[in-house]
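quick one before i forget lol
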Amino acid sequence: METKDIYKFSYDFLVKKAEGYVTKEQIDTFISESDVPECNMTSIYEILLNILQDFNIYPNVIKFEQRKEEIKKIIHFPDLKYCASLDYIELKNEFKRAFQFENEKCWLNYSKGVVSGAKFLSEFDTYEDFKNLCESFDENVFTREAFALLLSTKISNMGFAIACNWLKEIGYKNYPKPDVHIKDICKAIGVLDEQGKDGDCFEQTIKIAECCGVEPYRLDKVWWLICSGNFYRDSIKIKMPAKKAEFIAALKANCRNEQ
């Protein structure tokens, strides 16, 4: 199998394994539409609040989806100026009074991200100003990589991969997220070494998508759905952890056969 056929192979695998759980139409919608169909400062900040806790143990600690209305009330969402003025330690303490948690570190880091994210976005007078900045970096793989790195320095608790995830879900579909699943797949087909640096994975995923003639977003979503089975927009979670290993083995074998 040539590189240009990897996306079709992956897509066909997903459709087959998800049969009976979701329709092909549901899959097509999921892999083509971002999480925020209509972007403005309010919607992109709300998804940032979610994405800032979307790694490691954070989702089970912060539980944004479960607590989002109370979190938004505490920070006076969507008042970016107010949130930007908060002291992150005091915000963490306010969260603790509300949620009675024990994990101080995760909530402190999350609070830092909430405040610094608001500070960053409040620097823009309008959403169009922010959009213009994003588009100025969406020129090639290296400028995109530079922008994600820049965001990771501006917003606390946002590493490179989280920055990519935020950008792709607010409509910038040239930003795949180099998470553990994408890295495992890239390693298996020999385009990423065992060290698996985020930037290298980001670049290789984009190269494969371009060779296949699809947006990096589509390739990212297909691979992620195969590995996670999480159709969260439809509230459907397919238990398919074994499918990841099956897919990687099949993809690796087919790629090897063409070498």
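fyi Residues 104-121 form the longest helix (18 residues).
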